[in-house]
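Tokens for DUF423 domain-containing protein. Go.
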Amino acid sequence: MAPTLPDRLLVALAALAGLLGVAGSAAAAHRPTESESLRIAAQFLLFHAPAILAMVSLGRSGFVGPVLAKIAAATLLLGLTLFCGDLTLRALVQVPLFPMAAPSGGVLLMLGWLIALLAPLLPRTAR
């Protein structure tokens, strides 16, 4: 079965998260005054990039329903964008992404993990 466009986009965006995680780690090493927020953002990007790749792979393999896998991966990506984007902007330019961006991103990250937790436990017919 050929990869779908959503799967390809999720994989590409997961790779982008990994790339940005490495770049953020390097930036944190060279900016001692802003390093803690940058380090946290970089770590979140690096921790979640493989999780997103895994969700796409699990969905394509049939181990979990492909729709739930895509929803979990997309939710994790959106959460990363808000959480890490806010931390990074605050560290580098002292401007938030928007009010409550980081907490909203954190809630979405937890929701993405909850969906990932439920995906293998739900019957296939429910997906």
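Residues 12 and 125 are 29 Å apart (CA to CA).
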